[in-house]
Write a structure and sequence with these properties.
By secondary structure, this protein is mostly helical. The protein contains 20 helices and five strands. It has a five-stranded parallel sheet, sandwiched between helices.
Protein backbone atom coordinates (compact mmCIF):
# COMPACT_ATOMS: atom_id res chain seq x y z
CA UNK A 1 0.00 0.00 0.00
CA UNK A 2 1.49 3.47 -0.88
CA UNK A 3 2.58 5.89 1.83
CA UNK A 4 -0.27 8.27 0.98
CA UNK A 5 -3.17 7.50 -1.30
CA UNK A 6 -5.18 10.07 -3.31
CA UNK A 7 -8.28 9.13 -1.33
CA UNK A 8 -6.78 10.20 2.03
CA UNK A 9 -8.98 12.56 4.02
CA UNK A 10 -6.72 14.09 6.68
CA UNK A 11 -9.39 16.50 7.90
CA UNK A 12 -12.28 14.07 8.19
CA UNK A 13 -13.85 13.97 11.68
CA UNK A 14 -12.95 10.36 12.35
CA UNK A 15 -13.72 8.81 15.73
CA UNK A 16 -12.44 5.27 15.12
CA UNK A 17 -9.34 3.87 13.45
CA UNK A 18 -11.32 0.92 12.11
CA UNK A 19 -14.77 -0.66 12.06
CA UNK A 20 -14.64 -4.44 12.54
CA UNK A 21 -17.41 -6.15 10.54
CA UNK A 22 -18.26 -9.76 11.34
CA UNK A 23 -21.08 -12.26 11.62
CA UNK A 24 -22.47 -12.74 15.12
CA UNK A 25 -21.45 -16.39 14.77
CA UNK A 26 -17.84 -15.21 14.56
CA UNK A 27 -18.06 -13.02 17.69
CA UNK A 28 -15.07 -14.83 19.24
CA UNK A 29 -12.91 -13.81 16.29
CA UNK A 30 -14.26 -10.26 16.57
CA UNK A 31 -13.25 -10.00 20.22
CA UNK A 32 -9.80 -11.44 19.50
CA UNK A 33 -9.10 -9.09 16.59
CA UNK A 34 -10.41 -6.05 18.49
CA UNK A 35 -8.07 -6.68 21.41
CA UNK A 36 -5.15 -7.79 19.21
CA UNK A 37 -5.14 -4.54 17.24
CA UNK A 38 -6.02 -2.12 20.06
CA UNK A 39 -3.33 -3.50 22.38
CA UNK A 40 -0.61 -3.71 19.74
CA UNK A 41 2.13 -1.19 20.46
CA UNK A 42 3.23 0.32 17.14
CA UNK A 43 7.05 0.33 16.85
CA UNK A 44 8.56 3.67 17.91
CA UNK A 45 10.21 4.08 14.49
CA UNK A 46 6.75 4.20 12.86
CA UNK A 47 4.79 6.35 15.32
CA UNK A 48 4.13 9.83 14.02
CA UNK A 49 4.67 8.75 10.41
CA UNK A 50 1.81 9.46 7.95
CA UNK A 51 -0.61 6.59 7.34
CA UNK A 52 -2.46 6.08 4.03
CA UNK A 53 -5.40 8.09 5.44
CA UNK A 54 -3.14 11.11 5.89
CA UNK A 55 -3.22 10.91 9.70
CA UNK A 56 -0.08 10.41 11.76
CA UNK A 57 0.42 6.92 13.13
CA UNK A 58 -0.49 6.73 16.84
CA UNK A 59 1.21 4.61 19.48
CA UNK A 60 -1.76 2.23 19.33
CA UNK A 61 -4.69 1.96 16.94
CA UNK A 62 -7.34 2.94 19.50
CA UNK A 63 -10.29 3.06 19.48
CA UNK A 64 -11.81 0.51 17.11
CA UNK A 65 -15.57 0.03 16.66
CA UNK A 66 -16.94 -3.47 17.28
CA UNK A 67 -19.65 -3.69 19.95
CA UNK A 68 -23.23 -2.93 18.81
CA UNK A 69 -24.37 -3.06 22.48
CA UNK A 70 -23.46 0.60 22.91
CA UNK A 71 -25.61 1.78 20.00
CA UNK A 72 -29.00 3.40 20.37
CA UNK A 73 -32.17 1.28 20.33
CA UNK A 74 -32.61 -1.40 17.68
CA UNK A 75 -35.14 0.56 15.68
CA UNK A 76 -32.33 2.68 14.20
CA UNK A 77 -29.50 0.17 14.40
CA UNK A 78 -28.75 0.63 10.68
CA UNK A 79 -28.55 4.39 11.10
CA UNK A 80 -26.16 4.11 14.02
CA UNK A 81 -23.95 1.62 12.22
CA UNK A 82 -23.83 3.87 9.17
CA UNK A 83 -22.68 6.72 11.42
CA UNK A 84 -19.98 4.50 12.97
CA UNK A 85 -18.80 3.45 9.50
CA UNK A 86 -18.58 7.08 8.44
CA UNK A 87 -16.53 7.82 11.55
CA UNK A 88 -14.04 4.98 10.80
CA UNK A 89 -10.86 5.30 8.77
CA UNK A 90 -10.79 1.61 7.81
CA UNK A 91 -13.24 -1.28 7.49
CA UNK A 92 -11.87 -4.68 8.54
CA UNK A 93 -14.04 -7.61 7.43
CA UNK A 94 -13.72 -10.95 9.24
CA UNK A 95 -14.36 -13.38 6.40
CA UNK A 96 -15.91 -16.83 6.84
CA UNK A 97 -18.86 -18.78 5.41
CA UNK A 98 -20.90 -17.15 8.19
CA UNK A 99 -19.88 -13.68 7.02
CA UNK A 100 -20.57 -14.59 3.39
CA UNK A 101 -24.20 -15.29 4.32
CA UNK A 102 -24.61 -12.28 6.64
CA UNK A 103 -26.82 -9.49 5.35
CA UNK A 104 -25.37 -7.11 7.94
CA UNK A 105 -21.77 -7.71 6.94
CA UNK A 106 -22.56 -7.21 3.26
CA UNK A 107 -24.47 -3.99 4.01
CA UNK A 108 -21.57 -2.66 6.04
CA UNK A 109 -19.22 -3.28 3.10
CA UNK A 110 -21.53 -1.64 0.54
CA UNK A 111 -22.09 1.33 2.84
CA UNK A 112 -18.34 1.83 3.28
CA UNK A 113 -17.86 1.51 -0.49
CA UNK A 114 -20.55 4.13 -1.09
CA UNK A 115 -18.48 6.57 0.98
CA UNK A 116 -15.64 6.28 -1.54
CA UNK A 117 -13.40 4.29 0.80
CA UNK A 118 -13.17 0.96 -1.02
CA UNK A 119 -9.35 1.15 -0.95
CA UNK A 120 -9.50 1.17 2.85
CA UNK A 121 -11.34 -2.14 3.14
CA UNK A 122 -9.15 -4.89 4.64
CA UNK A 123 -10.12 -8.54 4.91
CA UNK A 124 -8.99 -11.30 7.27
CA UNK A 125 -9.94 -14.88 6.40
CA UNK A 126 -10.70 -17.06 9.44
CA UNK A 127 -12.55 -19.95 7.77
CA UNK A 128 -13.69 -21.15 4.34
CA UNK A 129 -12.20 -20.18 0.98
CA UNK A 130 -12.46 -16.96 -1.05
CA UNK A 131 -14.23 -16.75 -4.42
CA UNK A 132 -15.47 -20.36 -4.55
CA UNK A 133 -19.18 -19.43 -4.95
CA UNK A 134 -20.22 -22.51 -2.97
CA UNK A 135 -20.75 -23.48 0.67
CA UNK A 136 -17.06 -22.82 1.40
CA UNK A 137 -17.27 -19.19 0.21
CA UNK A 138 -15.95 -16.78 2.85
CA UNK A 139 -16.21 -13.44 1.02
CA UNK A 140 -19.56 -11.59 1.26
CA UNK A 141 -20.97 -10.66 -2.19
CA UNK A 142 -19.80 -7.04 -2.02
CA UNK A 143 -16.24 -8.15 -1.29
CA UNK A 144 -16.13 -10.23 -4.46
CA UNK A 145 -16.55 -7.15 -6.66
CA UNK A 146 -12.94 -6.09 -6.15
CA UNK A 147 -9.67 -7.45 -4.78
CA UNK A 148 -9.28 -6.28 -1.17
CA UNK A 149 -6.08 -6.32 0.85
CA UNK A 150 -6.46 -9.68 2.60
CA UNK A 151 -4.76 -11.58 5.42
CA UNK A 152 -5.31 -15.27 6.15
CA UNK A 153 -5.53 -16.19 9.85
CA UNK A 154 -6.04 -19.91 9.15
CA UNK A 155 -3.24 -22.32 10.15
CA UNK A 156 -2.86 -23.22 6.47
CA UNK A 157 -2.46 -19.52 5.60
CA UNK A 158 -0.56 -16.76 7.37
CA UNK A 159 -1.64 -17.83 10.87
CA UNK A 160 -3.19 -15.49 13.44
CA UNK A 161 -0.06 -13.49 14.30
CA UNK A 162 1.06 -12.85 10.73
CA UNK A 163 -2.50 -12.08 9.66
CA UNK A 164 -2.74 -9.46 12.40
CA UNK A 165 0.58 -7.94 11.30
CA UNK A 166 -0.61 -7.83 7.67
CA UNK A 167 -3.68 -5.82 8.69
CA UNK A 168 -1.54 -3.50 10.79
CA UNK A 169 0.92 -3.06 7.92
CA UNK A 170 -1.98 -2.10 5.66
CA UNK A 171 -3.26 0.47 8.17
CA UNK A 172 0.27 1.86 8.69
CA UNK A 173 1.10 1.91 4.97
CA UNK A 174 4.34 -0.10 5.39
CA UNK A 175 5.52 -3.41 4.03
CA UNK A 176 4.59 -6.58 5.92
CA UNK A 177 8.19 -7.85 6.01
CA UNK A 178 9.46 -4.59 7.51
CA UNK A 179 6.80 -4.61 10.23
CA UNK A 180 7.37 -8.31 10.97
CA UNK A 181 11.11 -7.76 11.37
CA UNK A 182 10.57 -4.89 13.80
CA UNK A 183 8.00 -6.95 15.68
CA UNK A 184 10.34 -9.93 15.95
CA UNK A 185 13.11 -7.74 17.38
CA UNK A 186 10.75 -6.28 19.92
CA UNK A 187 9.41 -9.74 20.81
CA UNK A 188 12.90 -10.89 21.70
CA UNK A 189 13.37 -7.85 23.92
CA UNK A 190 9.98 -8.41 25.55
CA UNK A 191 10.73 -12.07 26.25
CA UNK A 192 14.06 -11.11 27.78
CA UNK A 193 12.27 -8.52 29.88
CA UNK A 194 9.63 -11.10 30.82
CA UNK A 195 12.30 -13.41 32.23
CA UNK A 196 13.82 -10.55 34.20
CA UNK A 197 10.41 -9.42 35.43
CA UNK A 198 9.48 -12.95 36.51
CA UNK A 199 12.64 -13.12 38.56
CA UNK A 200 11.86 -9.72 40.06
CA UNK A 201 8.35 -10.87 41.00
CA UNK A 202 9.73 -13.91 42.80
CA UNK A 203 12.32 -11.82 44.61
CA UNK A 204 9.78 -9.13 45.52
CA UNK A 205 7.19 -11.56 46.85
CA UNK A 206 9.79 -13.61 48.70
CA UNK A 207 11.44 -10.53 50.14
CA UNK A 208 8.16 -9.25 51.55
CA UNK A 209 8.03 -12.24 53.90
CA UNK A 210 11.30 -11.12 55.50
CA UNK A 211 10.31 -7.54 56.22
CA UNK A 212 9.84 -6.69 59.84
CA UNK A 213 6.97 -4.61 61.21
CA UNK A 214 8.92 -1.34 61.11
CA UNK A 215 9.39 -1.92 57.33
CA UNK A 216 5.65 -2.25 56.71
CA UNK A 217 5.42 0.73 54.38
CA UNK A 218 8.23 -0.60 52.21
CA UNK A 219 6.49 -3.99 52.10
CA UNK A 220 3.25 -2.36 50.89
CA UNK A 221 5.14 -0.50 48.18
CA UNK A 222 6.81 -3.74 47.14
CA UNK A 223 3.45 -5.44 46.82
CA UNK A 224 2.17 -2.63 44.60
CA UNK A 225 5.18 -3.06 42.36
CA UNK A 226 4.65 -6.82 42.27
CA UNK A 227 1.05 -6.34 41.18
CA UNK A 228 2.09 -4.04 38.34
CA UNK A 229 4.57 -6.64 37.20
CA UNK A 230 1.92 -9.34 37.42
CA UNK A 231 -0.37 -7.26 35.21
CA UNK A 232 2.45 -7.04 32.67
CA UNK A 233 2.83 -10.81 32.75
CA UNK A 234 -0.90 -11.37 32.47
CA UNK A 235 -1.66 -9.06 29.56
CA UNK A 236 1.40 -7.76 27.70
CA UNK A 237 3.63 -10.82 27.85
CA UNK A 238 0.64 -13.06 27.14
CA UNK A 239 0.08 -11.26 23.83
CA UNK A 240 3.67 -12.02 22.85
CA UNK A 241 3.72 -15.65 23.94
CA UNK A 242 0.35 -16.77 22.55
CA UNK A 243 1.13 -16.13 18.83
CA UNK A 244 4.34 -18.18 19.00
CA UNK A 245 2.59 -21.21 20.45
CA UNK A 246 3.85 -20.99 24.03
CA UNK A 247 0.36 -21.65 25.38
CA UNK A 248 1.64 -23.75 28.27
CA UNK A 249 3.62 -20.75 29.56
CA UNK A 250 0.59 -18.49 29.05
CA UNK A 251 -1.61 -20.84 31.08
CA UNK A 252 1.04 -21.17 33.78
CA UNK A 253 1.36 -17.38 34.08
CA UNK A 254 -2.44 -17.04 34.22
CA UNK A 255 -2.77 -19.71 36.92
CA UNK A 256 -0.02 -18.15 39.03
CA UNK A 257 -1.50 -14.66 38.76
CA UNK A 258 -4.96 -15.97 39.64
CA UNK A 259 -3.50 -17.76 42.65
CA UNK A 260 -1.76 -14.55 43.70
CA UNK A 261 -5.03 -12.58 43.65
CA UNK A 262 -6.91 -15.35 45.44
CA UNK A 263 -4.41 -15.11 48.25
CA UNK A 264 -3.77 -11.36 48.40
CA UNK A 265 -6.90 -9.87 46.75
CA UNK A 266 -6.85 -6.69 44.64
CA UNK A 267 -4.89 -3.64 45.75
CA UNK A 268 -7.51 -0.88 45.78
CA UNK A 269 -4.80 1.77 45.42
CA UNK A 270 -3.50 0.43 42.09
CA UNK A 271 -5.76 1.99 39.45
CA UNK A 272 -4.04 0.16 36.58
CA UNK A 273 -4.74 -3.23 38.18
CA UNK A 274 -8.34 -2.23 38.89
CA UNK A 275 -8.86 -1.00 35.34
CA UNK A 276 -7.55 -4.27 33.89
CA UNK A 277 -9.83 -6.23 36.19
CA UNK A 278 -12.76 -4.02 35.11
CA UNK A 279 -12.09 -4.72 31.43
CA UNK A 280 -11.57 -8.46 31.99
CA UNK A 281 -14.88 -8.82 33.83
CA UNK A 282 -16.73 -6.90 31.11
CA UNK A 283 -15.18 -9.18 28.49
CA UNK A 284 -16.32 -12.18 30.51
CA UNK A 285 -19.84 -10.71 30.68
CA UNK A 286 -19.86 -10.19 26.91
CA UNK A 287 -19.02 -13.85 26.32
CA UNK A 288 -21.66 -15.07 28.75
CA UNK A 289 -24.26 -12.77 27.20
CA UNK A 290 -23.39 -14.06 23.72
CA UNK A 291 -23.82 -17.59 25.06
CA UNK A 292 -27.30 -16.69 26.33
CA UNK A 293 -26.40 -16.98 30.03
CA UNK A 294 -27.91 -13.65 31.09
CA UNK A 295 -27.75 -14.30 34.84
CA UNK A 296 -24.04 -15.05 34.77
CA UNK A 297 -23.44 -12.14 32.39
CA UNK A 298 -25.25 -9.79 34.77
CA UNK A 299 -23.13 -11.06 37.68
CA UNK A 300 -19.91 -10.35 35.74
CA UNK A 301 -21.14 -6.90 34.65
CA UNK A 302 -22.09 -6.06 38.24
CA UNK A 303 -18.66 -7.12 39.50
CA UNK A 304 -17.02 -4.97 36.83
CA UNK A 305 -19.36 -2.11 37.68
CA UNK A 306 -18.35 -2.20 41.34
CA UNK A 307 -14.72 -1.78 40.29
CA UNK A 308 -15.67 1.04 37.92
CA UNK A 309 -17.37 2.83 40.81
CA UNK A 310 -14.27 2.49 42.96
CA UNK A 311 -12.11 3.94 40.17
CA UNK A 312 -14.42 6.93 39.79
CA UNK A 313 -14.54 7.50 43.55
CA UNK A 314 -10.75 7.46 43.64
CA UNK A 315 -10.45 10.04 40.84
CA UNK A 316 -13.75 11.86 40.17
CA UNK A 317 -12.01 14.22 37.71
CA UNK A 318 -11.08 11.38 35.35
CA UNK A 319 -13.59 11.86 32.51
CA UNK A 320 -12.65 8.59 30.78
CA UNK A 321 -13.50 6.59 33.90
CA UNK A 322 -16.74 8.52 34.27
CA UNK A 323 -17.70 7.55 30.72
CA UNK A 324 -16.64 3.93 31.37
CA UNK A 325 -19.01 3.89 34.32
CA UNK A 326 -21.88 5.30 32.23
CA UNK A 327 -21.35 2.54 29.64
CA UNK A 328 -21.22 0.00 32.48
CA UNK A 329 -24.68 1.14 33.65
CA UNK A 330 -25.91 0.68 30.07
CA UNK A 331 -24.49 -2.86 29.81
CA UNK A 332 -26.33 -3.81 32.98
CA UNK A 333 -29.48 -2.13 31.64
CA UNK A 334 -29.35 -4.10 28.39
CA UNK A 335 -29.26 -7.43 30.27
CA UNK A 336 -32.03 -6.35 32.63
CA UNK A 337 -34.13 -5.31 29.63
CA UNK A 338 -33.57 -8.71 28.00
CA UNK A 339 -34.74 -10.29 31.26
CA UNK A 340 -37.91 -8.16 31.14
CA UNK A 341 -37.12 -6.14 34.29
CA UNK A 342 -38.11 -2.70 32.94
CA UNK A 343 -38.07 -0.80 36.30
CA UNK A 344 -34.48 -1.91 36.99
CA UNK A 345 -33.56 -1.19 33.35
CA UNK A 346 -34.91 2.34 33.69
CA UNK A 347 -32.91 2.93 36.87
CA UNK A 348 -29.69 1.75 35.22
CA UNK A 349 -30.25 3.98 32.18
CA UNK A 350 -31.08 6.96 34.42
CA UNK A 351 -27.87 6.42 36.41
CA UNK A 352 -25.97 6.42 33.11
CA UNK A 353 -27.80 9.60 32.08
CA UNK A 354 -26.80 11.40 35.29
CA UNK A 355 -23.11 10.82 34.56
CA UNK A 356 -23.44 11.91 30.95
CA UNK A 357 -25.26 15.08 31.98
CA UNK A 358 -22.33 16.04 34.20
CA UNK A 359 -19.80 15.29 31.46
CA UNK A 360 -21.76 17.26 28.85
CA UNK A 361 -22.17 20.22 31.22
CA UNK A 362 -18.45 20.19 32.03
CA UNK A 363 -17.58 20.62 28.33
CA UNK A 364 -20.53 21.64 26.13
CA UNK A 365 -18.24 21.71 23.08
CA UNK A 366 -17.47 17.99 23.31
CA UNK A 367 -19.66 16.56 20.55
CA UNK A 368 -19.00 12.97 21.65
CA UNK A 369 -20.39 13.59 25.13
CA UNK A 370 -23.38 15.44 23.69
CA UNK A 371 -24.04 12.46 21.42
CA UNK A 372 -23.78 10.06 24.41
CA UNK A 373 -26.29 12.22 26.28
CA UNK A 374 -28.77 12.10 23.39
CA UNK A 375 -28.47 8.30 23.28
CA UNK A 376 -29.20 8.07 27.02
CA UNK A 377 -32.36 10.16 26.67
CA UNK A 378 -33.43 7.99 23.74
CA UNK A 379 -32.87 4.74 25.67
CA UNK A 380 -34.86 6.05 28.62
CA UNK A 381 -37.65 7.04 26.24
CA UNK A 382 -37.72 3.52 24.82
CA UNK A 383 -38.16 2.00 28.30
CA UNK A 384 -40.81 4.53 29.31
CA UNK A 385 -42.67 3.85 26.08
CA UNK A 386 -42.54 0.10 26.72
CA UNK A 387 -43.94 0.76 30.20
CA UNK A 388 -46.83 2.71 28.68
CA UNK A 389 -45.77 6.07 30.14
CA UNK A 390 -46.11 7.94 26.84
CA UNK A 391 -45.97 11.53 28.21
CA UNK A 392 -42.67 10.84 30.00
CA UNK A 393 -41.33 8.96 26.96
CA UNK A 394 -42.23 11.95 24.77
CA UNK A 395 -40.30 14.31 27.07
CA UNK A 396 -37.22 12.05 26.96
CA UNK A 397 -37.35 11.79 23.17
CA UNK A 398 -37.70 15.58 22.88
CA UNK A 399 -34.66 16.08 25.13
CA UNK A 400 -32.72 13.77 22.80
CA UNK A 401 -34.06 15.63 19.75
CA UNK A 402 -32.95 19.02 21.10
CA UNK A 403 -29.35 17.80 21.42
CA UNK A 404 -29.35 16.16 18.00
CA UNK A 405 -30.73 19.34 16.41
CA UNK A 406 -27.81 21.33 17.83
CA UNK A 407 -25.28 18.76 16.62
CA UNK A 408 -26.83 18.61 13.14
CA UNK A 409 -26.93 22.41 12.89
CA UNK A 410 -23.28 22.67 13.99
CA UNK A 411 -22.22 20.47 11.06
CA UNK A 412 -24.92 20.00 8.39
CA UNK A 413 -22.52 17.85 6.35
CA UNK A 414 -22.30 15.18 9.08
CA UNK A 415 -24.61 12.49 7.74
CA UNK A 416 -24.43 10.49 10.97
CA UNK A 417 -25.91 13.34 12.97
CA UNK A 418 -28.58 13.86 10.33
CA UNK A 419 -29.50 10.19 10.67
CA UNK A 420 -29.66 10.51 14.47
CA UNK A 421 -31.97 13.51 14.05
CA UNK A 422 -34.19 11.52 11.69
CA UNK A 423 -34.43 8.71 14.25
CA UNK A 424 -35.47 11.16 17.00
CA UNK A 425 -38.26 12.56 14.84
CA UNK A 426 -39.48 9.01 14.15
CA UNK A 427 -39.58 8.12 17.86
CA UNK A 428 -41.52 11.28 18.69
CA UNK A 429 -43.91 10.64 15.81
CA UNK A 430 -44.55 7.09 17.01
CA UNK A 431 -45.49 8.35 20.50
CA UNK A 432 -47.71 11.14 19.16
CA UNK A 433 -49.51 8.66 16.92
CA UNK A 434 -49.98 6.28 19.88
CA UNK A 435 -51.46 9.21 21.84
CA UNK A 436 -53.90 9.88 19.01
CA UNK A 437 -52.43 13.28 18.07
CA UNK A 438 -52.36 12.56 14.34
CA UNK A 439 -51.77 16.15 13.08
CA UNK A 440 -48.70 16.52 15.33
CA UNK A 441 -47.47 13.03 14.38
CA UNK A 442 -47.85 13.87 10.67
CA UNK A 443 -45.82 17.06 11.05
CA UNK A 444 -43.00 15.24 12.84
CA UNK A 445 -42.96 12.40 10.29
CA UNK A 446 -42.78 14.99 7.49
CA UNK A 447 -39.74 16.56 9.22
CA UNK A 448 -38.18 13.08 9.30
CA UNK A 449 -39.14 12.51 5.67
CA UNK A 450 -37.44 15.76 4.62
CA UNK A 451 -34.15 14.61 6.17
CA UNK A 452 -34.46 11.14 4.64
CA UNK A 453 -35.13 12.71 1.23
CA UNK A 454 -32.06 14.98 1.47
CA UNK A 455 -29.80 12.09 2.46
CA UNK A 456 -31.14 9.85 -0.32
CA UNK A 457 -30.78 12.65 -2.90
CA UNK A 458 -27.20 13.35 -1.78
CA UNK A 459 -26.15 9.75 -2.47
CA UNK A 460 -28.62 7.78 -4.62
CA UNK A 461 -26.31 4.76 -4.52
CA UNK A 462 -26.58 4.46 -0.74
CA UNK A 463 -29.02 1.57 -0.31
CA UNK A 464 -29.51 2.15 3.43
CA UNK A 465 -30.54 5.75 2.89
CA UNK A 466 -32.92 4.70 0.13
CA UNK A 467 -34.45 2.13 2.49
CA UNK A 468 -34.76 4.75 5.25
CA UNK A 469 -36.59 7.00 2.80
CA UNK A 470 -39.06 4.23 1.95
CA UNK A 471 -39.67 3.64 5.69
CA UNK A 472 -40.31 7.38 6.23
CA UNK A 473 -42.81 7.37 3.36
CA UNK A 474 -44.57 4.40 4.98
CA UNK A 475 -44.82 6.16 8.37
CA UNK A 476 -46.25 9.27 6.70
CA UNK A 477 -48.69 7.13 4.74
CA UNK A 478 -49.85 5.32 7.88
CA UNK A 479 -50.81 8.62 9.55
CA UNK A 480 -52.51 9.94 6.40
CA UNK A 481 -54.49 6.70 6.28
CA UNK A 482 -55.56 7.11 9.92
CA UNK A 483 -56.74 10.64 9.04
CA UNK A 484 -58.80 9.25 6.15
CA UNK A 485 -56.81 10.93 3.36
CA UNK A 486 -56.66 7.86 1.12
CA UNK A 487 -55.40 9.57 -2.08
CA UNK A 488 -52.42 11.08 -0.22
CA UNK A 489 -51.88 7.74 1.55
CA UNK A 490 -51.80 5.89 -1.77
CA UNK A 491 -49.24 8.34 -3.20
CA UNK A 492 -46.93 7.92 -0.19
CA UNK A 493 -47.15 4.12 -0.36
CA UNK A 494 -46.55 4.12 -4.13
CA UNK A 495 -43.47 6.35 -3.71
CA UNK A 496 -42.19 3.86 -1.12
CA UNK A 497 -42.96 0.96 -3.46
CA UNK A 498 -40.96 2.55 -6.28
CA UNK A 499 -37.87 2.73 -4.06
CA UNK A 500 -38.28 -0.85 -2.86
CA UNK A 501 -38.70 -2.10 -6.41
CA UNK A 502 -35.36 -0.57 -7.37
CA UNK A 503 -33.63 -2.04 -4.32
CA UNK A 504 -35.10 -5.52 -4.87
CA UNK A 505 -34.14 -5.45 -8.56
CA UNK A 506 -30.58 -4.38 -7.70
CA UNK A 507 -30.13 -7.47 -5.51
CA UNK A 508 -32.81 -10.18 -5.94
CA UNK A 509 -31.01 -12.34 -3.33
CA UNK A 510 -31.58 -9.81 -0.54
CA UNK A 511 -34.43 -11.33 1.48
CA UNK A 512 -34.95 -8.19 3.57
CA UNK A 513 -35.58 -6.04 0.52
CA UNK A 514 -37.92 -8.66 -0.93
CA UNK A 515 -39.89 -8.63 2.31
CA UNK A 516 -40.08 -4.81 2.27
CA UNK A 517 -41.43 -4.99 -1.26
CA UNK A 518 -44.14 -7.46 -0.25
CA UNK A 519 -45.18 -5.16 2.61
CA UNK A 520 -45.51 -2.23 0.20
CA UNK A 521 -47.79 -4.21 -2.12
CA UNK A 522 -49.89 -5.19 0.90
CA UNK A 523 -50.25 -1.57 2.08
CA UNK A 524 -51.25 -0.42 -1.40
CA UNK A 525 -53.75 -3.27 -1.64
CA UNK A 526 -55.34 -2.18 1.65
CA UNK A 527 -55.80 1.40 0.41
CA UNK A 528 -57.17 0.33 -2.97
CA UNK A 529 -59.60 -2.00 -1.21
CA UNK A 530 -60.75 0.82 1.08
CA UNK A 531 -61.30 3.00 -2.01
CA UNK A 532 -63.46 0.28 -3.54
CA UNK A 533 -61.07 -0.53 -6.39
CA UNK A 534 -61.17 -4.27 -5.77
CA UNK A 535 -59.59 -5.42 -9.09
CA UNK A 536 -56.52 -3.23 -8.48
CA UNK A 537 -56.40 -4.28 -4.83
CA UNK A 538 -56.48 -7.95 -5.84
CA UNK A 539 -53.58 -7.42 -8.24
CA UNK A 540 -51.54 -5.70 -5.52
CA UNK A 541 -52.21 -8.50 -3.05
CA UNK A 542 -51.22 -11.09 -5.67
CA UNK A 543 -47.99 -9.19 -6.31
Amino acid sequence: MPDKAPWAEPKAPYQYWAFISYSSKDAKWGRWLHRAIETYGIPAQLTGKPTPTGHASPKRFHPLFRDREELAASSDLGVQIEAALRASRYLIVICSPNAAKSEWVNKEITTFQSMGRQERILAIIVDGEPNTADARECFPPALRTFEPTAADARPVGDGKENAKLKLLAGMLGVGFDALKQRDAQRKIHRLQLGVAVSALVILSLAGMAWYSNHQRQKAIAARHQAERILQFLLFDLRDKLEPIGRLSIVKDVQDRVDAYYREFGIDESDSAALRNRFVALNNKGDVLRDQGDRSAALKAFNEAHAIGQRLVQADPANADWQRDLSVSFERIGHVLSAQGDLPATLKAFKDSLAIRKRLAESDPTNAGWQCDLSISFSKIGDVLSAQGDLPAALNAFRDSLAIRKRLAESDPTNAGWQCDLLASFDRIGDVLRAQGDLPAALKVFKDSLAIAQRLADSDPANADWQRNLSASLDRTGDVLSAQGDLPATLKAFKDSLAIRKRLAESDPTNAGWQRDLSISYGKIGDVLSAQGDLPAALKAFKD
